[in-house]
Specification:
Helix content: under 10%
Shape: flat
Strand order of the largest sheet: 11-12-16-15-13-7-8-10-9-14
Radius of gyration: 27 Å
Number of domains: 3
Structural class: mainly beta
Strand content: 25-35%
């Protein structure tokens, strides 16, 4: 069933279930463990099943995170799992912010398009592999194979490459969304569904296209990567330097906006044009005080330990 959104100053009994006011990638809803009246501010909802959160503003309600879709899958005859995919383009890379939506239809005898959360997902052959998380320490790098019906994907690649030469949709976001047939808006546009619920999903998975692995007239294969799986990137990205501030003087990071001026050697001056930062901790102390909080843009502790 579709649950009502959390609302302030509303009385709830033990067992009442609400959803967040905005979509949660976790797909969770929240059951009241104690009765009471909600506060004026929506709580910060937990992202793991079983975690609890107290309502705000002195409310006596404690909410526990549950999953309506997992409860549906645990019944004797569960509804079929429906797997959907969204491809989100970025105008700076791909020339538009278009969103393409597909479903494969292999989990249920669905012979046409489906509607979920007000969006239409076209039924085309899609194969997704490698989404499993393993204990090897490396992040999954799934592959997404999309049928190249009527050369539609090849045509999309040509349009994208006209904006960014050789891009081949690299950097486009792929969202994998899984729900059950019971919670769809409609199948083949066959009327409405009283059980439709855009909040009843398994945790949403988001990846980015790392490269086009292959392309022919039958299918196009993309290799996906997590946002954290960035080849050649190092943490921290800023170079660790002990005593040279990396912030631009009087910038947002530096935050100094005072009327006391100092030369680059930290000597005071009344001439604003001579005001320059020496990029040392001593320079920072001149401006913010000997015992003040220093927004020093470097790493003074580097080299002190071995």
């Amino acid at each position: 069933m579709a649950y009502a959104a959390w609302n302030g100053a509303t009385a709830h009994a033990v067992g009442d279930i609400v959803r967040a006011t905005t979509p949660q990638p976790s797909g969770l809803v929240f059951r009241a463990k104690t009765s009471g009246t909600t506060g004026q501010t929506e709580p910060k909802w937990p992202t793991d099943i079983g975690n609890e959160v107290d309502d705000t503003d002195g409310s006596t309600i404690t909410w526990a995170a549950i999953s309506s879709i997992y409860e549906e899958l645990s019944v004797l005859a569960p509804s079929a799992i429906i797997e959907m995919f969204e491809l989100h383009l970025t105008s700076s890379l791909h020339g538009s912010n278009d969103v393409f939506r597909w479903h494969s239809g292999v989990n249920e005898q669905v012979t046409g398009n489906i509607v979920w959360n007000g969006n239409t997902y076209n039924r085309i052959p899609v194969k997704a592999e490698g989404f499993e998380y393993r204990n090897t320490g490396s992040l999954p790098r799934p592959t997404l194979t999309v049928a190249n019906l009527d050369s539609a994907i090849s045509a999309l690649l040509l349009v994208v490459n006209a904006t960014s030469t050789g891009n081949d949709l690299a950097g486009a976001e792929v969202r994998r969304i899984r729900t059950v047939k019971k919670f769809l808006d409609a199948v083949n546009f066959a009327g409405g569904n009283s059980n439709a619920d855009p909040y009843a999903t398994m945790p949403e998975e988001r990846y980015f296209i790392d490269r086009k692995a292959s392309e022919n007239r039958d299918a196009v294969v993309f290799e996906l990567a997590s946002k954290f799986d960035l080849a050649g990137q190092m943490i921290p990205k800023r170079q660790c330097i002990a005593n040279i501030c990396q912030w631009e003087y009087r910038s947002e990071e530096c935050s100094y906006a005072g009327n006391n001026f100092f030369r680059i050697d930290d000597s005071p001056t009344s001439v604003q044009s001579e005001d320059a930062c020496g990029k040392r901790i001593s320079s920072c102390k001149k401006r913010f005080g000997e015992n003040g909080a220093l927004p020093f843009g470097s790493f003074p502790g580097v080299g002190l330990t071995q």
